[in-house]
Sequence to fold (230 residues):
Amino acid sequence: GAVVSQHPSWVICKSGTSVKIECRSLDFQATTMFWYRQFPKQSLMLMATSNEGSKATYEQGVEKDKFLINHASLTLSTLTVTSAHPEDSSFYICSARGTVFDQPQHFGDGTRLSIL
Amino acid sequence: AQSVTQLGSHVSVSEGALVLLRCNYSSSVPPYLFWYVQYPNQGLQLLLKYTTGATLVKGINGFEAEFKKSETSFHLTKPSAHMSDAAEYFCAVSSKAAGNKLTFGGGTRVLVKP
Fold:
């Protein structure tokens, strides 16, 4: 149980395009979803927290107009990287937590984004 | 504020030997503590967690960790390493006061030698 699916797993696109990444909880309802960014050989950095039906809360230093997050249902959150540039290239990982507050987060398999 | 320090960015162990990964945390409120494992180009898989109750926590794949409040530690151990244990391991802390947001340590890469 507690499976989180993230799509796509890899994406390569040209500079200036926008890229959408989906995060789905397959067998549970996710009240809260989290988006992380991970640089090579580094730890995960929390970008934002999204609660179903509410606006996302962004961490300090994360541009909300660059990284648009939508959490329209209890099973789906999306991250859109707008007007992507090479410096946005990274590994993006989502996680989801169920309706009980102290449940652990369950992670997707990540999306490798490469901007040319 | 909460933080996590993992001592040793790389650990090398022989197959069959003890695996010990060190994690110290800082939290002004009772912490929730987690160990996650990450294989290349994949997300994180939960190994074990401590929220309340018994301080010795057993997880998947033969791993266990002990919460020691007096030492602010949550070290991860496995009695006998397997080749499949080669991966990156992350210790993380959260709390109700932090909205259950996870703060990760820097990670420890485990290499298992045959």
